[in-house]
Amino acid sequence: MILSLSHKFLFIHVYKVAGTSIVRALGGADVRHLVRILAPENQGPFLASQGIDPRFMTMHDHSFAKDVQGVIDPALFKRLFKFGFVRNPWDLQLSLYRFNVEKPHVRNADLDFSSFENYILCTPDAPLPHGVQKRFLFDTDGTQVVDFVGRYENLKADFSEVCQRIGIESISLGHANATKHGPWASYYTREMFEHERKRCAVDIATFGYSDDPAAYGIK
């Protein structure tokens, strides 16, 4: 998450969607950096003077847009250019699996990481009502909170548009916190694909991803 007063934007960080690279590129503008150099007794009054509830300082880096909206003055929130990025749901799950394999200390103990197939199939295939990614960028009524949703699959062009919208020179993103794996479709059986199709139906429909396995070369 990045809140910039100087460039008037809010970045919502959906996990495993190039967010670390975006934070490295734009994070220097985050208001939290400015606040942390102030004396403790001045931090709250400064934030309040800008229309930001001091609770913002303790919010998680992967906070939902609707929650950030709740600690920012409506007039300020309206002026901000708010954006986030999403990723093909099947690709996202592979990246999450690889991340957890490489960093076991962050694992959810309720999931089976013995293989990617087990990881996918160990969860119920009932649709997640607010999606895995949609919940970051929409409120619980289904209204989009952010102004722009970029795609990981079109990262270079979409991030260039973000730079243009916030009035900075286009920055070339690195590939920070990347997980190592081949083309995602090669890791899926038809059963795994269908399982995730049901589970992530909300994200698939909201962000316009194909739910046809043939579109990805999966038989």
Most strands sheet: 4 strands, mixed
Q: What is the CATH C level class, in words?
A: Alpha Beta
Following the backbone from N to C, one meets helices and strands in this order, namely: EEHHHHHEHHHEHHH
Indicate the percent of residues in helices: 40-55%
Structural class: alpha/beta
Which strand-content bin applies to the residues? 5-15%
Question: What is the CATH third-level topology name?
Answer: Rossmann fold
- Largest sheet strand order: 1-2-3-4
Distance between the termini: 38 Å
Morphology call: elongated
* Mean pLDDT across every amino acid position: 94
Low-confidence spans = none
> Into how many domains do the coordinates divide?
1
Number of helices: 11
What oligomeric state do these chains adopt? single chain
Radius of gyration: 19 Å
The beta-strand count equals 4
CATH architecture: 3-Layer(aba) Sandwich
Walk me through the structure.
It is a single chain. The protein has helices at 19-26, 31-36, 40-50, 65-69, 74-79, 89-102, 116-121, 134-137, 155-166, 190-199, 201-207, and strands spanning 2-4, 9-12, 81-86, 148-151. It has 219 residues and is an alpha/beta fold. It has a single domain, classed as Rossmann fold, CATH 3.40.50. Strands 1-2-3-4 form a four-stranded mixed sheet. The longest helix is centred in the middle third of the chain and has 14 residues, at 89-102. The chain is elongated and about 60 Å long. The mean pLDDT is 94.
Summarize the topology.
Layout: E1 2-4, E2 9-12, H1 19-26, H2 31-36, H3 40-50, H4 65-69, H5 74-79, E3 81-86, H6 89-102, H7 116-121, H8 134-137, E4 148-151, H9 155-166, H10 190-199, H11 201-207
Parallel strand pairs: 2-3, 3-4
Antiparallel strand pairs: 1-2
